[in-house]
Design goal:
- The chain has about 525 residues and is of the alpha/beta class.
- The protein is built from 16 helices and 27 strands.
- The protein has 4 domains: about 20-160, Rossmann fold; about 200-315, Rossmann fold (3-Layer(aba) Sandwich); about 350-415, Luciferase, Domain 3 (Luciferase, domain 3); about 425-520, ANL, C-terminal domain (GMP Synthetase, Chain A, domain 3, 2-Layer Sandwich), CATH 3.30.300.
- Helix 3 links the parallel strand 3 (about 55-60) and strand 4 (about 80-85).
- It binds adenosine monophosphate.
- Adenosine monophosphate binds near residues 217, 291, 312, 341 and 429.
Length: about 525
Amino acid sequence: MNRGHLSCLLDAAVAAGADRPAVEDDRGRAWTYAELDRIVDRVHTRLARWGVGRGDRVGLFLPKSLEAVATIHGVLRAGAAYVPVDPFAPAARGASILADAGVKAAIVDAALVGALRSHWPQRGPSPRLVAVGDAVDAADRLDSWDELAADDAPSPLRPRTSRDDLAYILYTSGSTGVPKGVMLTHANALCFLDWCRATFKIGPDDRFASHAPFHFDLSVFDLYASCGAGGTLVLAGESLGKDPARLGAFVSERSIDVWYSAPSILAMLVERGGIDRPDRRAPRVVLFAGEVFPIAPLRKLRGIWPHAELWNLYGPTETNVCTAQPIPSRIPDDRDQPYPIGAVCPPLRARVVDEHGSDVAAGALGELVIAGQGVMRGYFGRPDLTNAAFFHDDRAQWYRTGDLVRDDGTGCYHFHGRRDRMVKKRGYRVELGEIEAALYRNDDVERAAVVARDGAEGVVVRAFVKIKPDRKASIIAVKRHCGQLLPNYMIPDVITFLDQLPTTSTDKVDYQGLTQWAASHV
Ligand code: AMP
């Protein structure tokens, strides 16, 4: 067994307890580790028959399901890397991501096959597809999942692999309008998982909620910490995941022991999930990451789940979690600031630097940079972006997080926002520049600028648009246009038409002026 490969986690779980429950969905289906292993083997068999192996990429364009979990493990067993895309975002975006990643094959929800094909860019060969569900257009180069699962061909040999092989590529919002693919290796993921194993008390009897979608890096913990512990992954499908009342019931009724989500989901559970009802059971380990958890809802959560181990985890997709802060069992009444993002997670290393990469004075504000085995290889097909994201010195190669922090003198980092135009919406990364790029693809738009501000319900994204003189446009039409190009969470909350956008003396958009204007014109 190759211990430097994520696929060894499933092998070990099967060896330790083939009949134990591996994965359950929210519609009553469940597979033991033996059942999961068999389907994973079938996925590997099909991919190997198509010549997919080490160094290749395979797309995953599926709602959360047992099949999606089997696909992920099957791709890894084949030695390839998976590229998960949001099945609820516009198909045009999904197709351009999968084409960018050069996937050789993709496992696709049957209902999405047509849209994927119609948006597939002309250039380059189209991938082999497996359709999950009833395929609408059984066509050339389209296989069915049922046929894949029933295939009794002998298992192929496992490929030779290295811990430095790519395991998955996660596409995040890109400031120039094109999502960028963060390349993560087996060594990157295992570095994070080793830290998790050493830090959290998790074991084979634990039931891990899978709330985050598979294209979001929080899912790496759910998928592999559960499998690594030989525990059970309990899938919360996309519609359940957004419904606080059902999600609150899910945590209790499905006996969730380990929970990991963005703070906004936990805040939603606190407010509308009914988790404070006396008959409700609490998880034992509750992790959150992706954005600041404001102190008021965190205090309420702490009061409702006083005995849970609570952690604030921090890190960009490029490093996975790189700092962590346990939350005390009681939050003092006079605390009005969010908790810090905490100390660096060994064996990663962290520094706070200025724009030249030199250490700032103790306690001063600077950019957090990270080095070590958890740090991504780079951005897929974008050496320019990769080079810009790193700098070297005689100690290491450092990844620039773009986050401003202060070290309080004890090695504990306090988060002070971004140094660029990236914001977080319900834990998702949103480059305001990507929204602007989408607006500029509308023929009616002459100029567009997008700003964000914190509102009572989280970040509010506001677009200011100047329409071309000879054109007419409605807010609904502009929103609809955005909806064809962007996932829901990136569609501006507010669109304002202006005759002129404020500009600086060099004719650049005056973002500061717009932000101030937006704050006073809510
Ligand atoms: P993503 O790549 O989607 O995981 O987003 C990473 C960014 O989210 C980081 O660079 C931070 O700006 C922000 N972030 C992640 N975790 C936290 C946290 N615990 N507290 C505050 N901001 C966070």
